[in-house]
């Protein structure tokens, strides 16, 4: 795309063709084959000198296409199962990295600073200590400042860490 700066509209069909005919990592199938039940032929295979052009028989092709269409639902279901399995494995890997933290009422904690609150890369990543006032479900907590000022929003345990004075 760098070389074709002003002509991206003309390049788009080729880019889409490449995407639709490339096996995806989640399903191990091409989007084209999931829609039409067979693999696409690239323009080089359609030329008269290719073996596929010379060995083409319309009766065999029609039979093969009917079989592919008959099996298409099964192929789509297998692709869905593969994508779901990959999604779950990524989810399990992500959950294995999380360290669940359980805080009790009156624990002193520090809250992670939001990225927009950081002035520069040397700004502190954790804010002043807070006290846990209420333990909610799903790992959420209500906090207050040490002076007793109530924080109006909840914080999740993943954004909190113990404060040791």
Provide structural commentary.
It contains five helices and five strands, in the order αααααβββββ. It is of the alpha+beta class and 165 residues long. The chain folds into two domains: 5-97, no CATH class; 108-162, SH3 type barrels. The protein starts with 7 loop residues before the first helix and ends with a strand.
Order of helices and strands: HHHHHEEEEE
**Main sheet: strand order:** 4-3-2-1-5
- In helices, the fraction of residues equals 40-55%
**How many separate domains make up the residues?**
2
- Name the overall outline: elongated
Binned strand content: 15-25%
Task: Please state the average pLDDT score.
Answer: 84
Cα-atom Rg, whole angstroms? 28 Å
Number of strands: 5
Taking the alpha carbons of the first and last residues, their distance comes to: 56 Å
| Total number of helices | 5
Quaternary structure state of the chains depicted? single chain
Structural class: alpha+beta
- Residue stretches low in confidence (pLDDT < 50, at least 5 long) are none
Please describe the biggest sheet, giving its number of strands, its sense, and whether it closes into a barrel.
Answer: 5 strands, antiparallel
């Amino acid at each position: 795309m760098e070389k074709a700066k002003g002509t991206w509209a003309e390049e788009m069909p080729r880019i889409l063709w490449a995407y639709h005919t490339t096996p995806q990592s989640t399903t191990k199938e091409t989007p084209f084959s999931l829609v039409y039940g067979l693999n696409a032929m690239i323009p080089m295979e359609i030329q008269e000198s290719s073996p596929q052009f010379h060995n083409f028989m319309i009766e065999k092709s029609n039979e093969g296409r009917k079989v592919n269409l008959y099996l298409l639902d099964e192929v789509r279901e297998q692709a869905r199962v593969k994508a779901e399995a990959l999604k779950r494995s990524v989810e399990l890997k992500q959950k294995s990295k999380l360290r669940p933290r359980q805080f009790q009422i009156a624990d002193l904690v520090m809250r992670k600073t939001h990225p927009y609150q950081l002035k520069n890369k040397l700004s502190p990543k954790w804010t002043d200590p807070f006290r846990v006032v209420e333990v909610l479900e799903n790992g959420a907590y209500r906090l207050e400042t040490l002076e007793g000022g109530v924080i109006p929003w909840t914080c999740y345990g993943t954004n909190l860490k113990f404060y040791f004075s």
